[in-house]
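Researcher: I'd like a structural prediction for the single chain below. Treat it as a standalone chain; there are no partners to consider.
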Amino acid sequence: MEKSNKLVGIEWLIFQKIQSIISVDMNWNQSGPKPWTKLVYNALKELGDDLHYTVYSSAFKEDGHAGWLYDLIWSIDDDSEQQINDWKEFRGLGLICEVEWGGYDAILHDFTKLTIGNAQHRLMIVNHNDEDKKNNQWEQIKALCLKASKYRFQNFNYLLISIPWSDKKNLQYHSWNY
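Model: Treating it as a single chain, here is the predicted structure.
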């Protein structure tokens, strides 16, 4: 059964980090997805580093931290003798994240990957048209993800965040556990 939570712990830190990037003077309609993707990845990398995870994403392949199955992960790696995280000492995943700026089918495709991944937290970041008051895209995206997570493994924590196209006050989130 779905339990909607107030954000606490890592989920609250993630939401705050995403909230901080949307305060930049950039509008989705004017910029398109590429700069937003970079902002999201960099923000999540900074937070993951602060929390002592090893962060992997295709955005960081030049650092030797290329992507692995998901758009971005926080890996739990034991420190090596050199006091650096070592992927060869992998102990699990703190976070798996998918970022999708496409339509409902693309969101569902990426979100479904989160429903089978074994990690402490599952994060889906999308965007929504907050100018279309007739069709509440946020509610439709939320319903899509809730339904997709319902029949999967139990006791998985999910956080869905949607960045608005125009009004930054419309940043949305939903947190649940199935």
